[in-house]
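TL;DR need structure tokens for one chain.
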Amino acid sequence: SCALVVKTPKAVFGIDLDEGPNSGNGNPDKVAGLAGIKFHMTAAQRATLAKLVDVSFHSHRHHDHVNYQITEALVAAGKTVVVPEDIRTMWRDAPFVAGLTVLPPQPGHKHRVGDLQVEVLGGRQWMARDHSSVCPCNAYLITTDNGVTVLFKGDINNGDQMLPWLRQVKARD
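>> reply
TL;DR here they are.
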């Protein structure tokens, strides 16, 4: 996984914020090579992060790209949390589900999220060698208030959708 925090003159946004190598239910797992060491944030650390971040984008539902407790803290702080539809479905019974924002993948369309412009590509992560298991995964092309563009593809590992989209973006911008 790769979490990012980007600060612009007008906003701070995060991408795939999580607590590190955790299990799907939010409890820390052992990390290969670090037996017995577990990573997690305290409630106070999550609240501090939620104060700092204005918008949080999440590419897909795997626990190393989205975290229940961080999402809960962000929504409680009134922050915008952008997720693919399957995350909202996964957490449909969570008390904060109404605070989640789904931006439909529409290549060529720029969504306005605060001071950011966001284009979303819906892709996928193949989970098995034979490609029999697939996880939906969004790529985000984010243009900041000061004109910097950040591309984050999550774990999209299939170029069939990604490469044509990148060529369209290049031709356009």
